[in-house]
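Support case: user asked for a sample of complex input and structure output to validate their parser. Sending the pair below.
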Amino acid sequence: MKRGYLAEVMLVLGAVLTTAAFLMTFFWAPPSVYPDGRVDFAQKIFYFHVPVAEASFLVFFFTAFYGVRFLMTKRKEFDVKARIATEVTLFFVLLTMATGILWTRVEWNVWWQWEPRLTTYFIMTLLVIGYFVLRNSVEDEERRATYAAAFGILAFIDAPISFFITRVVQSTHPVVFKSGGLEPPMLVTFIVGQIGMLMLGYAFYQLRLKEEELKERLEALKIGLGG
Amino acid sequence: MQDIYSQVIPQAPYVIWAYALIWVSLLGFVAMVFARLRRLDKQMQVLEEALKRREQQA
Amino acid sequence: MGSLSWRQFKAILRKDIVMELRTREMLTSMGLYAILTMVVYQIALVEAGEGLDVRLVMPGLIWVAFIFMSMLGLNRSFVHEKDQGCLDALLLAPIDRPVIFLAKFAGNLLFLLVVEALTLPVFAFLFLQGRAGFGGPLWMVALVLVGASIGISGIGTLLATISVNTTGKDIMLAVLFVPLQYPLLRAAVGATFAAVIGGPDATASFWNWMGWIAGFDIIMVLAAFGLYEFVIEA
Amino acid sequence: MPEPVDQPAVEVRDLTRAFGVRKALDGVSFSVPEGAFLSVFGPNGAGKTTLLKVLTTLVAPSSGSARVCGLDVVEGAVELRSRIGLISHNPLLYPDLTAEENLLFFAEMYGVERPEERVRELLEAVELDHRRLDTTRTFSRGMLQRLSIARALLHRPDVLFLDEPYSGLDPHAMDILDSLVASIRQHHTFVMVSHDLEKGLELCTHALILAQGRVVLFEKREDIDERAFRATYRSVVGMGVS
């Protein structure tokens, strides 16, 4: 099983890179400072928060991608892939939310604010959760897969619209890459963390896929042995 | 130095929480998947043995 | 659309209207729901007293009432298709699946607009008497109503087809519908607000929001249209 | 009964319908000629409903092929739909429409020519013309079944599918259904899915037993040894339960 092997390599690499990013964050990347010269220690959350958030978007794309593949072919494997991609999305989305809330508490002195970026990300979280609520309430396997695929595609189209519509209103959420704002060590730390997180995302996806494939094989064996 | 600490210390718990949360969640995810994979492997063995027994009987 | 498709479209739409006029299920439940919401609004606003400028909150309140009201109607619109297995009979006929979508979409849009047109004056009568009236012309409000209702019915028709086959269908529609409609609602509230406030700045903002509504309508109705065939045959 | 013609009315070849590893139909093959009456038996979950859905173009085969009236159920689906009719244990009628409105609605769905005349003609044939202005909510089970037959015949289909048509009918309604089926028997091919062994054997020219998605038995009526047939049926019903 070549693919399973790759998953584990990615897992180790991802772990190494994210750990490296962690060390670089605290021992190498220079502290960010407020305009009045005070140290902004909470900015360190950024080095994990953003990679996880970016990964969540990327993985969510595969929900829609495999949703389309499923509708075209009606093959169960694509439904399984779409579902696992959404699972990993949910995992990353929740992590993004949690770290974001901690950062908000420090910088804005509140746990939550109905600020455009937060609002739209909250909507995306609801869409991902809705995907699973939907799955759980459909009995027939194939119908469940079809509905989930349709909703996954809709949700993926909807998420960016939500994002941009709030941009009509002023946002206080920091925009990282606005004007070359990062010093090189900060940028490198961030990139290492980002690559590590994407590798972890890939590894999670493949590991879960391996698990589901094993389940499917077990099911087939059981049927072969007479139910 | 004193000055820097006075700024960092109130923010530190949140940063530590954020990182701890991520690490624990990532580890938890991996551990869970591996545990389930092991359990499935065990099931697979059971079924394969059953299959072999049946083949011998047949 | 071929001539058979056109006949089928008309027949489905006519059937839905005849059935609705006979049972008045959707119209009464949606209308009553809207009126009840207004009673609840009165309670919600009672402590704010005279100092509150209702014009500031009204656009939001209207859309809260309409979005939940529309879900009530959407849910009903597929229950009778499902009841005696009529949907299967429909699918057995030589009908292009998108025709079913367009006909149900048109029916839902029609009922939604009727109830909105009936309840909006009541809303104004109950909350806006003796207050500063509308800043902008009335056709602006009408335009937002039509624009947003298209999006609501488009996505709603698809999601109602899904939710009618799930356990706990009422809550399921809400769980899928509200987050998906967030961009539309946001724009509808923005546009309604601009229409209510009036003035040259507001007109620019109104058209900006209307642009969003139009874009959302086009994208989402097309997506629902494309996905419908798969969903209804599942 | 008309002499069977060469071209098969229903022809199924190595039909498989699967989702993942679960197979609802697994390599089903059979064919019946025009004018035949095929009874499909089998326990719950044997694949009867799936077979019916494939033959009526509601679901596509995963592999293999099925042809009805010489038309492929996937490629010829649209044309095929106007040549088949379904009578189910569910009436498939809108309870809030009148008998006439129901039939007119479905006549429009099938693009029937001169729909008013055709509807009137069928209402008379099933003896419901006196109730044509009543909503079907007020109809008895037997009346619904009659109207449902009229609905299935609106577009003059060649093949009629019957899905447990006798379930929930009282003896009187059964008799009416029997005589209606007998009166249209001449011009149609029938495929009936049923639990009712007696009725199924009485009506059929061909019998098929499905179990776990496979064909256990497929015979012409005149070749059937009833004792052996019943024994086979009993044994597969047992399989379905386990």
